[in-house]
Specification:
The protein has helices at 3-13, 15-39, 43-87, 91-110, 121-141, and strands at residues 144-147, 159-166, 175-180, 182-185, 188-191, 193-199. The chain is α+β, with helices and mostly antiparallel strands. The chain has a domain at 144-203: Head domain of nucleotide exchange factor GrpE (Nucleotide Exchange Factor Grpe, Chain A, domain 2, Roll), CATH 2.30.22.10. The chain has a three-stranded antiparallel β-sheet with strand order 1-4-5. Strands 2-6-3 form a three-stranded mixed β-sheet, with no helix packed on it. The longest helix is centred in the N-terminal third of the chain and has 45 residues, at 43-87. The protein is elongated, with a radius of gyration of 49 Å.
């Protein structure tokens, strides 16, 4: 017997060959069983799973649409509130200042030429004083502060010098007179006070 014939005989008698053959047979059987199981799913179950997937997608789509609608409503509401804030921002101030206007109109009515009785100037003065107090109270309520710097040091941030006047009884840059009072709103100057400022006399 030749060497080739002996090797072939040994390979045929090798027990490992039987093991490999059995393993390949088992794998093929498993794959066939898996394919058979997949192909054996009832049509109703496949249809039910597909319907459930479609339902889930539709629910997510509806939720997205609702979220977009809510965001759009919020945006429109914010724009409307902002527009109203700009439009009616002075409403409270108007309601506060109207009584002062009413008081002035009543005072003018008292001193009008159509008045048939003698005008009592004391009452007119009293009415004007009351009107001024109402205006001052309103300004204070609105955080408006009066700038009346008579006798103070000149401050270019709050005062506007109309002229400089020599003075021997005041230090230079002292406010000698106030032509027109100034006003600030929340510590921000709205109108500077117009003043006369002292300067050192010429020697």
């Amino acid at each position: 017997m030749t060497a080739t014939q002996e090797n072939f005989k040994e390979s045929m008698n090798d027990p490992r060959k039987d093991t490999m053959g059995d393993s390949m047979a088992d794998t093929g059987a498993d794959q066939a069983a898996t394919a058979e199981d997949a192909g054996s799913l009832p049509y109703e179950e496949l249809q039910s799973a597909l319907q459930a997937a479609h339902t889930q997608v539709e629910e997510q789509r509806n939720q997205l649409l609702r979220t977009r609608a809510e965001m759009e409503n919020l945006r429109r509401r914010a724009e409307r509130d902002l527009e109203n804030a700009h439009k009616y921002s002075l409403e409270r101030f108007i309601n506060e200042i109207l009584p002062i206007k009413d008081s002035l109109e009543m005072g003018l009515q008292v001193v009008s030429e159509d008045a048939t009785e003698t005008v009592d100037m004391d009452k007119v003065r009293e009415g004007m004083d009351l009107t001024l107090k109402m205006m001052q109270a309103l300004l204070q309520k609105m955080a408006v502060r009066e700038i009346n710097p008579l006798g103070e040091k000149f401050n270019p941030d709050m005062h506007q010098a109309m002229m400089a006047q020599e003075a021997t009884d005041a230090e230079p840059n002292t406010v000698l007179a106030v032509y027109q009072k100034g006003y600030s709103l929340n510590d921000r100057v709205v109108r500077p006070a117009m003043v006369v400022v002292s300067k050192a006399p010429l020697s």
